[in-house]
Amino acid sequence: MLVSEILAIKGKVLYTIAPNRSVAEAVEIMNEQDVGSLVVFSHGQMTGMLTFREVLRAVQQGGAGWESVSVEDAMIRAPLTASPNMEMDELRRLMVEHHQRYLPVMDGTTLLGVVSFHDVAKAVLEEQSFENRMLKNYIRNWPAEEEGER
Predict the structure, then answer these.
(1) Could you give the dihedral angle defined by the CA atoms of residues 65, 66, 68 and 71, in that order, rounded to the nearest 10 degrees?
(2) What's the burial of 133, exposed, middle or buried (CB within 10 Å: 0-12/13-18/19+)?
(3) Residue 103, domain member (yes or no)
(4) Total domain count for the chain?
């Protein structure tokens, strides 16, 4: 399965924020939309990613004034990315090796979406379920043996 197929299953809704916004605003958006990451966009280009990990770091480092920390100061600059034609196994390996729960999917300079580890797990389950149904159907329709073939 390709990353583009995972995006097709998930849908391509993107949640973004500008780098000059506050971490408090980012937390509000993440809670309202029930997402664990936001793509940071400036002048039509992705400039970074903000995940709940960076939010927690900003809270720790900002202390009582964490709410005024800017997204730009908290975000991951130049995050790892996936390509739409990447195989799911390669994507999983990349996410595990680099401890990334969210990866933007880029086609050149165009952001196609964000794939989460949850999206990957869901795609694996759906793929296994499909293969399981196909195998059961194959077994159910197993051709009867002829007398002379034994």
Answers:
(1) 160
(2) exposed
(3) yes
(4) 1
